[in-house]
Amino acid sequence: MDTKIIVKWETQVKKGILDFIILLLLRERSQYGYELLEYIKEKTGYDMAEGTIYPLLNRLKDDGLIDSKWVEMETGMPRKYYSITDAGLSGLESMKTFWISLVNNLEKLL
Amino acid sequence: MNIETLTTHASYIAYMKKVASMIASLPNTSQREIQGEINSHIYESLRTTPGLSVEEALQRFGDPDAYLPEWAAVKKMEIAAGSFDPIRIFKALLLGMWNHSTHAIKYIVFALLYVFTFAFGLLCILKLIFPSHTGLLISGQGFTFGFNSDIMGVHEVLGWWFLPICLFITILLYVIITILLKASLPKFK
């Protein structure tokens, strides 16, 4: 099969679960945009155009799953820290349940 | 790299100029919010990656066309709904439908609700032009609230009271729908 198709499919899958990944990583600790992005790359190997994470973060904020606040730094530019909300933690539990069920079902097919 | 070196770099200035032009229709606070987030990201990128040039950092961040339209659309919608200005809301809904694909269906639903609302406003105009064809029209078969071209055997019962009633319904629906639209949006800080 054409490798381009596979690469495209992999990108779609990763893109589709990016919300889930962000919530999982923010559950560990509050992070600013760049830090979060680097963490995503490190944990998932998903290399995306960096700016695209911000509309996604704003969307998660739309849904009340995360919150943000600007923090002034002693040196350098202020950072906007994102943190998971109670609704985000609750949503994450539902996502986890769905994910485990999906993986189990897929494993039966593999 | 320090802040001054970054903010005076030609490529950075050109990039931020493009960003500024794309978000120029947003209020200053929203513009500062978006620019602040980009500034912070590029700065951190250069600070933590030795040898990375400003051009490379900007390339990694991506072309503003790839991420700004969706970002700006939500902010614009929030401002429009807060202003209760129908023209702003109309423009923001159009922008949202085109650029904010994940919420496009929601914006289409709101647009249809506004069309329904303004239909009552239109009835006021029709009442002025066709007073006997517009209103609460009662006939042997039932009634019509609105316009009817065939008024044989039909009589209109509200008279000119139809105008304030329609206006009241229009304003009430407009306010309710706009409050719902505002409530459905994110709370940007």
Query: In terms of structural class, how would the helical and strand content of chain A be classed?
Result: alpha+beta
Q: Could you give me the name of the CATH homologous superfamily of chain A?
A: Winged helix-like DNA-binding domain superfamily/Winged helix DNA-binding domain
- Give helix % range of chain B: 55-70%
- Under CATH at level 1, the class of chain A stands as Mainly Alpha
- Which two chains share the most extensive interface? A-B, 25 and 30 residues
What order do the helices and strands of chain A follow? HHEHHEEH
Largest sheet of chain B: 3 strands, antiparallel
Count every helix of chain A, treating DSSP H or I runs of 4 or more residues as helices.
5
Query: Quaternary status of these chains?
Result: heterodimer
Low-confidence segments of chain A: none
Distance between the termini of chain B: 28 Å
Q: How much β-strand is present in the residues of chain A?
A: 5-15%
- CATH-scheme architecture of chain A: Orthogonal Bundle
Shape of chain A: globular
End-to-end span of chain A in angstroms? Answer: 18 Å
Strand arrangement, major sheet of chain A: 1-3-2
- Kindly identify the CATH topology of chain A: Arc Repressor Mutant, subunit A
